[in-house]
Protein: DDE-1 domain-containing protein
Organism: Gossypium laxum
Amino acid sequence: ILEGYEKGEINPKKTNVLDAIHFINSAWNIDVKPTTFANCFQHCKI
């Protein structure tokens, strides 16, 4: 995901909820810690 953003393939201003769900699913499959998810949601103020 980050690599795509750095290459300009992902525009964070055009990311929708479905995209976010796919990003979370990808991160979950590579063993990102639950605290990382919690911190992300705290920062986005949802």
